[in-house]
Amino acid sequence: MRSFFPLAAIAVTLSLVGCETMKTMDVTKLTDVGGTAMKAMSLSDADIATMSDQSCAAMDQKNKIAPANSKYTVRLNQVVRQMPTTVNGKTANYKVYMTPDVNAWAMANGCIRVYSGLMDLMNDDELRGVIGHEIGHVALGHSKSRMQTAYAASAARGLASAAGGVVGQLSQSQAGDLAEKFLNAQFSQSQESAADNYSFDLLTERKLERKGLVTSFQKLAKLSEGTSSGGSLLSSHPPSTDRAANMQKRLDSGK
């Protein structure tokens, strides 16, 4: 299931590119696009980390980061005090973006970003559950697949070739474009469920409260009624109500 999502996305991307540009793109150029897109599937962990470094830096420059003495930073540091300090061998780097948006995400390089809007909505246990979920996407390889998908979509628009190769130095706009595609890419239903269970198991292992996984999804379900929010936490597959029920079932079963 981990490889199916990016492969499908690449196929759709190439199909769209072919339909939109066939009139102006010659066969050689189309072949180059296809080759670059397929190259996304062979990205090494080092490539993914480098691209994540640049993408995360672009997002940090674009957004207002809460200063060290901010109540949001102080609270986040307290919330993650018992959470992993490394993920897949990469140092976990937690920061808060000052924005009313309800979102959080993590990249394969250990970049973990939480939005102040999410912190305003969630209590500490709920916030910890959401962060555990995002860490799960990294630990389970989903974030790598998501970056492969983002890279394929960007490569089809000439981004990679302009940068001089997969691990070339991207410009600010290119890194920002890659980051946006990463954030807007959808995780599959199985990936979302696996990340939920990862968070539940992580909290269990560290003897932390797990009820927040239930109530956080209940809050997201209520907030997302009639809302279409792209790649944010509110765009949930499966629906947040189902995910809350699944976490409650695990709580009730004691497993």
TrEMBL record:
Keywords, sorted A to Z: Hydrolase, Metal-binding, Metalloprotease, Protease, Zinc
Annotated cofactor note: Binds 1 zinc ion per subunit.
Cofactor(s) in the UniProt record: Zn(2+)
MF term (GO), any: metallopeptidase activity
Biased composition (Low complexity): 225-236
Domain of life: Bacteria
Enzyme Commission number, as recorded: 3.4.24.-
Chain intervals for the UniProt region annotation (Disordered): 225-255
Record-linked Gene3D superfamilies: Metalloproteases ('zincins'), catalytic domain
Domain Peptidase M48: 75-250
Keyword Lipid metabolism appears in the UniProt entry: no
UniProt record similarity statement: Belongs to the peptidase M48 family.
Annotated protein name in UniProt: Metalloprotease
Species assigned in the record: Variovorax ginsengisoli
